[in-house]
Amino acid sequence: MAKVTIDGRTIEVPDGTTILQAARMIGPEVAPPTMCYYSKLKTSGGYCRTCLVEVTKGSEKDPRPMPKLVASCRTNVMDGMEVGNITSPKVIEARKGVVEFLLLNHPLDCPICDQAGECHLQDLSYEHGSSKTRTDFERRTFEKIDIGDKIQLHMTRCILCYRCVKVANQITDGRVHGVINRGDHSEISTYVEQAVDNDFSGNVIDVCPVGALTDKTFRFKSRVWFTKPVTAHRNCEKCSGKVNLWYKGEEVLRVTGRKDQWGEVEEFICNTCRFDKKSTSDWTIEGPTTISRHSVISANHYEVFKKPTEFKLNEVKPLTIQEGDKS
Amino acid sequence: MSDIKFSEETLALANKIIARYPEGKQKSALIPLLHLAQAEFDGWLSPAAMDYVASLLKIQNIEAYEVASFYSMFNLSPVGKCMIEVCRTSSCWVRGANEVIAHLENKLGIKEGETTADGMFTLKAVECLGSCGTAPMMMIGAQFHENLTHEKLDAIIDTCKQEGKRKTYLDSVVVDNY
Amino acid sequence: MGRKILLAHDHVPGIQSYEVYRKHGGYNSVEKAIKTMTPEAVVEEVKKSGLRGRGGAGFPTGMKWSFLAKPEGVPRYLVCNADESEPGTFKDRYLMSRIPHTLVEGMITSSYALGVNAAYIYIRGEYFYIVSILEKAIEEAYANGWLGKNILGSGYHLDLYVHVGAGAYICGEETALLESLEGKRGNPRIKPPFPAIAGLYGCPTVVNNVETLAAVSFIVNEGGDEYAKIGIGKSAGTKLISASGHINKPGVYEIEMGISVEDFINSEEYCGGMLNGKKLKAVVAGGSSVPILPADKILHLANGEKRLMSYESLADGGFGGGTMLGSGGFIVMDEDTSIVENLFTFARFYHHESCGQCSPCREGTAWMEKILHKMIDGHATLSDIDLLWEIQAKIEGNTICPLGDAAAWPVASAIRHFRSEFEEYVNNPKSVKKVIRMAL
Hints:
Chain A contains 6 helices and 14 strands. Chain B contains 7 helices and 4 strands. Chain B has a 4-stranded mixed sheet, covered by helices on one side. Chains in contact: A-B, A-C, B-C.
């Protein structure tokens, strides 16, 4: 066991736990944001650099601080380690830089993006970014591509988190898409026109932190915050069959995996459940899904009002749609 | 499967290369085999050529695309018979690389990045080739051309034209006794 | 004349061939090591020698070797990093093409010390012509019993192969190199684990530079103590310096560490002075990644003493006033050189070479190149200089591998030492633009 202190809060965790996992065990207040790490995907993480933290004390044995900020998702705790996340000015600065880098080529057109409302980059830039853009160079753009009849790839929005590649490697067989080219020319692609098509390919949509991979059967049918998530299951031969159904009125607009508080699916689901089972009669309904009241999705489901005096100046959301309360 | 296939001689070489790596690690031979394919199949890697290499190594096609598109020496579209790669990084730049490029653009009647209409030359500016002490320099195929002058450039282009042959990285070359 | 070790026989006619190389003492170190020393004893000599990695980082080689994990029944690998791609550096090319056996010999001795039975030379694709030179040397070594099964009747066996890359600076980073050797994209791995624990195919692996491995032969022949006597302080031994730019005699020089920078530039034995009698403006002393220094700072330390060609002396003054020996890529710039335009070529280089895995490097290197391009075109504002500074600061230290730092340091140092020149590009773009003529 190792004792680790993150932002002044101490927890004891098994050896081999990463700083990020330990922080999540303590709670969301000290958990660093993540854009590429995904606990259900092996070897994920390390790329985006949003979860950088400062190790001010290496361990009880070797108390020297680490010379550089480290990716908390890929660094294991040591007994006696002390870590600064939001209490470290260095981390705040670096994270601001990372957000700026990620937005350099990401379009700021959330109002027309299907992911708006459940976009991790939107949340990240709101919480850790700056409200100004310092670049006037053109952003890179790509044509939208259909990779099969159910999934659309819009590379323009991709932040190269590699999650969809890891999904293809780890839970499907015969990966046909990957990262091609190099540097800022890198792109997710099949290179030659090909469908990403197998029983579990739809999971790339759920793991995508932005609106680069979207569900064609749902695209632009509704804003997510106008839909109502319901927890449901069915007996499925291929997967657990445990899903969220997203209703508008009586109609199931989409089916997704169930997500935990970190925005990760609890279990991957198959394409039959995701794309082919869109009537209530296919499912056993368990009840309404609990949605964090901090989420924009909750806006139409809970009557929460704030007095104007409760808003702080820095809560003005720079890049995103104005609907909903996101305190 | 298309009719793209290595010659017997190349296939033997490919198998010799694959044998350099431990059992089950034949993917290690991917880059060397892509080089063989590029040299044998007209100086560039078509999807069919990459699929062929992937099949030899028993890997997914996308793995070959990912790798081929990462490394700057692999051409993913057709190029001229002689691809002129002019180094333009610091040491070459301070010794006149820009003028080398301008001279060649002028002589060949194309811009950097383009191929002549007859398919003979492609002019490409590249990053440091590790020949900084003999700057300015360029490579055509595997051959380094160093300490370039206007006269040398003209002579090299003329020789290439006369020979009319495709130059590849696998060519045996004359080594300057620098 | 300084002492020569690696290039001692450089001018012997035919030294590229096995017979001549052998006649001049070649492969003696293999004989000595295998017949008279235990592997541990060889490692011990390398430790004593004070040899440091010649690829750029300067990490003590003996220490690196001693980290190598040795679990039972798991193969270990030695990989030679011949991916030499740092702008300004061409020493490994020189050594491999002129005296190929010196690398082969060093690798056999080192492999024996590390208990390795398969070793690879990873050479950059642009050096394709050297592949055949090395392969010929390896063939000769096999033919003469220095490689293969039961070397010198000792029961020790070793296979050595050349593996060619295909154009990627990043593959000089050791974990990217291993990925590339496994047939993948050259994306650096996230460390730990380090290669000494899990390297090639997940097995314990040592990755060493060409020059480092070549130096092992002398250390085994003459002893670690003898090597440590050469050079100065912790900069033991000799170093190959690749000299380029505005000097009379560009080329590769073997120096005994500790000679002064001034002597290196001006003496006839080395650079032969400034080209066309121009004044020295700046030097990039250790390859494109290290901080550029203006003439006064590269020639002298803050206390007025002469700066020396050694790890410590070049680093004296920290990042504010010093630089690094790095890979020994020594680029000299005369008074007419535009620091901003040279920096642009570096920025373009790092943008081109970023693997694209982590966001600060992928996006930041492209951004810096764009701003510098704008500056050279005469469209930049003064705030762009500050922005450049901030971008490099946000990249440095925040990336997976050192390429981020390598891209940031040249920008930081150029602004630190030559800020007024950047301002000139903003205020007076027309007057600063220069056309560089070919020197010859």
